[in-house]
Structure formats: structure tokens, C-alpha cells
Amino acid sequence: MKIYLKSWFWAALLSFICVVCLIIWFLPKEAGDNVGIYQNGELLYSFTREELEEERSIRIEYNGGINVVEISNGTIRVAEANCPDGDCVSHGPLTRGGAPIVCLPNRLVIRFIDAGTDGQVDAVSGGAG
Amino acid sequence: MRTRKIAETALLTAVALIIYVVEAQLPSLTNIPGIKLGLSNVVTLFAMYTVGVGQALLVMVARVTLGSLATGQVMGMIFSLAGGALSFFVCILLKRLLPVRLMWVVSAFGAIGHNIGQIAAAVVVTGTREVIYYLPILVVSGALTGVFTGAAAQLVLRRVKPAVVKKLSNKSEENGPK
Q: Rounded to two decimals, what is the model's pTM?
């Protein structure tokens, strides 16, 4: 069985899919007040807005992978990483409504989280070197 | 016949691997994980339409495995293999439904499938649903890069097929669309 449809139909279908996805991509996302650093889906650190004002730098290791997270003036970013692609570093600081910072090789995710998720788990696991 | 198949698969794998390694040297255009042109899929597509689906699968798996070793991105291998599997499934399905002149459509949906599979693997591996955030933009990039690689493969096929493919494998008709 073969479907014979004109090329323009497929071009239109693909364009339509792209447009829908772009709209979803640019829709403003709701974001919590706190910032969480996750490794392998586990919350390693969480910071409230005030805590982000204090300057600090955190070294997070994973199987030989290293990410240095820097916090200053209310922003958080990955300053250094030894992962092959370096996407997390070029991502720049985490912005409200923007994409989460993801370092796939080191299983690291930095994103906004709800205020309720904070506290207890703070700096418990041995991620910090 | 067996020897010929081994030789064909090896040749196509070598070509795909070289393209893969060269592409890996280029700086990435975006800071979004998972976006790349995927030029070596031209070879996978070409293989699919000439020597057949089975050998194309071998070429793809060999390229992904050897490619991640060669570029030192062993971690990324899981994502690539998950993406490759879903992409391959989509391509096989669409290849049966669409005529050869719509190879670029097969490729586009294959690439979208690849990126969805990659995200799915990333969600499972990192245990973070948040990675889905990147899904829409990866679908768009899949559509664009897929059309490009598909069109490239289509051009290669059109130029190379009459001259070489009959010699390369007489199985091509058998495996080709009916």
C-alpha cells in the first residue's frame, strides 16, 4: 500500500508541526520561586531567592564528571564543566521562564522548583566534593 | 553472497563513521542538548533504500556504537541508541507507505522520532521529567535537519543508484518498496 500525496501536503504538515512546537516552546512557563539542583533526579541542593544573593560556588561531581555551579547576585549558572559538549556552560544563567540548565553527561539539572520542595534534602547527599 | 553483504555493510559503516566523526568536530550551533545535523544518517537512509532494512540497521548500530567510542561520548550512546531505534521504526513504517520521491518526508519523521526517543531516554536516565521542556524545539530541529539529510540522501540515491546499486546488491529490488 502506498500513500500518494503531493509533496506540498507533506511540506505543509511538517511546517504545521514546527509552528505548533515553536508556539509551545515560546509559551511562558510557570516557575517556582526556589531553585533546585538535581543529579540523577535527586535533589542535591535547593535555594530560596534570598539564598541566591549570597555568592558561592559549588563543585558537583558525577562519575568523574565535574560541574562547577556559581551563584551570585540572584543568578545561578554553570561556570565550568568537563563534559564533552559544554551545553550547560554556554546556556548561561538560569532565567525565569527559560529553559532549565541541563548537563546530560553529568546527569545534572538546575531548574526552578516550588517553595514547598525545599529544605530538608539540602546538601545531604555527597555530591559536593 | 554473504561476503558481499559483509563488505557492503562494512563499507557503508565506514562512510557513516567518517561523516559522524567529522561532524562531531564542528562546534554545536546551539546550547540546547541534542540538536545536531546528523549528516551520517544520509548513509543510513541510503542503505535502507539500497541494500535493505536489515543491513541499514546494522550500519546504524555499528556507527552509533563506534562513533560514541571514537568521539569519547560514551554517555551519549544510550541517548543515540534510543533515538536511533525509534527513528528506525518510524522510517521502516513510512518507507512502506511513501514513494521514493518522498524520501525526505520519511527522513523528517525519522529525525523527529530520533529526537523524541532521545528525550525519552534522557528522562529515564536522569530521572527528571523537566528534560521534556526541550521536546518542542527538538521536534522542530528534527523536522528541519531530517528534511535536509533526507533530501541529501535522495540526491545521492538518484545519482548513484543507476550506476552502482545494481552491482552493489541485487537484493535491492526485493527489499525495495512494492
A: 0.79
